[in-house]
Amino acid sequence: MPLVHSFRLRDPWQCSCGDDGRAVWTRGFQRPTGLEPGDELWLVISELPAGATVAVNDVPLASTGEGAGGPFRVHDLVTGRRNLITIAEPNAPPADGLFPYEAQLGVVVPEE
């Protein structure tokens, strides 16, 4: 299945400190328009540390190993205009408050 479109999920990521001292990142986004039947959405987040967790709309996707950030099939989880990605990592929030990873939402179409 070839990747047709890729959307970089840049700022605005919000960072907070969880009760356990972990950094918790959140970002809202919209479902891409123009999806055809059979198209799928995949989420990739680069270089997440071991022990990080990823969720879309409060549905856990996976606990990642070192450097693993997907791809995660999120097509059935992403609906309408209000969607939320949550990443909890084992590290404290960075001093500069900048999101230290690259996140992308990809549209994959079936091969003909």
Structure commentary:
By secondary structure, the protein is mainly beta. 0% of the residues lie in helices and 42% in strands. The strands form 2 sheets. The chain has a 5-stranded antiparallel β-sheet with strand order 2-3-8-5-6, with no helix packed on it. The mean pLDDT is 86.
Number of domains: 1
How many DSSP helices? 0
Oligomer: single chain
State the separation between the terminal residues, measured CA to CA: 9 Å
Keywords for this structure?
about 110 residues, mainly beta, Jelly Rolls, 5-stranded antiparallel β-sheet, 4-stranded antiparallel β-sheet, elongated
Quick rundown:
This protein has 112 residues and is mostly beta strands. It is 0% helix and 42% strand. The chain has one domain (3-108): Galactose-binding domain-like (Jelly Rolls), CATH 2.60.120.
Write the layout of secondary structure elements.
Elements: E1 3-8, E2 14-17, E3 23-29, E4 40-45, E5 53-56, E6 59-63, E7 72-73, E8 83-89, E9 103-108
